[in-house]
Amino acid sequence: MRVLAALSGGVDSAVAAARAVDAGHDVVGVHMALSRTRDQFRTGSRGCCSIEDAGDARRAADVLGIPYYVWDLSERFEETVVADFLAEYEAGRTPNPCVRCNEHIKFSALLDKAVALGFDAVCTGHYARIEVDADGSRALHRSADPAKDQSYVLAVMGPERLARSMFPLGDVPSKEQTRAEAAARGLSVSAKPDSYDICFVADGDTQGFLRSRLGERPGEIVDTAGEVVGTHDGAYAYTVGQRRGLALGRPAPDGKPRYVLAVEPVRNRVVVGPADELEVAVVEADRAVWFTPVTRGPLACAVQVRAHGAPVEATASVLDDGSLSVAVGPGLRGVAPGQSLVLYAGTRVLGQATVTGTRRGASPVRPAPAGGRAS
User: Fold this and answer.
1) Rounded CA separation 352/332 (Å)
2) CATH of the domain at 285
3) Do the annotations mark residue 241 as ligand-binding?
4) Where do the catalytic residues lie (predicted)?
5) Residue 327: strand pairing partners
6) Any known ligand binding at 346?
7) What's the structural domain count of the chain?
8) Buried/exposed code over 179-202 (b: 16+ C-beta within 10 A; e: otherwise)
9) 333 and 239 in one domain?
10) Which residues are catalytic?
11) Which of 190, 266, 281, 328 could form a disulfide with 182 if both were Cys (CB 3.0 to 4.6 A apart)?
12) For residue 230, which of 197, 256, 255, 252 has the smallest C-alpha distance?
């Protein structure tokens, strides 16, 4: 097959491309330039897709003996991933930019361009497995290494794009083995630190980034009784479940810590309260993407609401409008609108949706933020 290998400049994508070459595929490497700041460099192990990373990707391609190109997708990235990130926070929701990047960039813009150029598949360094069912359909599964599993952020891609994807690292038992393999192949990125945080916020200061784009909007922090207990520079900078950085002027009567329970963008207000108010019994979600046929009846599954969160046993129901109502077992708390909800059966991904609200029981924990979701 003709395979386009996405080379981020890190060790994972380099080893994935090497494995594709070993499998006998006709491989071409491409680095996606996503930053409009051409002199951007990584700070420590933060960020990705910088000038430094492009150079590392080129050197990896040279070692592998494959053609290498840089594709400028910065405008598409800004108009989709960054714009969605800002719009979601401004609307009081908590987005996952890695999910949106996989949706709009890696398995949309990149894959569509690859197919148009005659490639059969896109190869990435994600840790996830693809298994082929008896009927020939492909299923997305968790990786062999639970600590590195990235099926959560890949679930948004859907079955059509999965059919043209390759994840050669899905069966690798540990990141240490990936690094050892890279070193044995003579790849200079074998000891390169992992990137983390949000790639377009290279210094890790998410609140500072939001403030620079959205401006300061001072408002009140209130408790569940409506009493003012502090102030903020912008409600958009807070997320449900947050404890640190609240700087409350009045302690709780019982002396216990308080957490963000709701973000109200219209009022520009943040509501805080005790930890037990974060407990969730039902999660509501929309914009579902399914890897299996949709059933109207209750579906026993496990759900995950964070990239590195623990799965929780649940029962999901598809409503008449296509949205989901998911009754979850104990232990799930602090779920924010905008988060990605992924449904599993064992290691297999069943589907993905975007959280719109939660309930503690028969009555809502908090009202859904006003305004429609940004596309």
Assistant:
1) 17
2) 2.40.30.10
3) no
4) 101 (nucleophile), 199 (cysteine persulfide intermediate)
5) 282, 315
6) no
7) 3
8) bebbeebebebbebeebebbbbbb
9) no
10) 101, 199
11) 190
12) 252
| Dihedral sign from CA coordinates of 60, 62, 68, 72 | positive
319 is in an annotated binding site: no
The whole-angstrom separation of Cα 277 and Cα 292 is 34
Domain end (from 175, 191, 207) = 191
**Domain hosting residue 318, numbered range:** 279-359
Query: Same domain for 28 and 135?
Result: yes
Q: Which of 252, 302, 295 is nearest to 277 (CA)?
A: 252
* 320-333 pLDDT, tens digit each: 999 999 999 998 99
Determine, yes or no, domain membership for 173.
yes
Are 318 and 353 in a shared domain?
yes
- For the stretch 154-205, pLDDT in tens is 999 999 999 999 999 999 999 999 999 999 999 999 999 887 668 888 777 8
Q: Kindly give, in sequence order, each residue whose CB lies less than 8 Å from that of residue 244, ignoring residues fewer than 6 positions away.
A: none
Q: What phi and psi values does residue 37 have, to the nearest 5 degrees?
A: -95, 100
The three-point CA angle 27-131-127 to 5° equals 60
Q: How many CA atoms lie within 13 A of 98 on its CB side?
A: 18
For 35, other C-beta atoms within 10 Å of its C-beta total 21
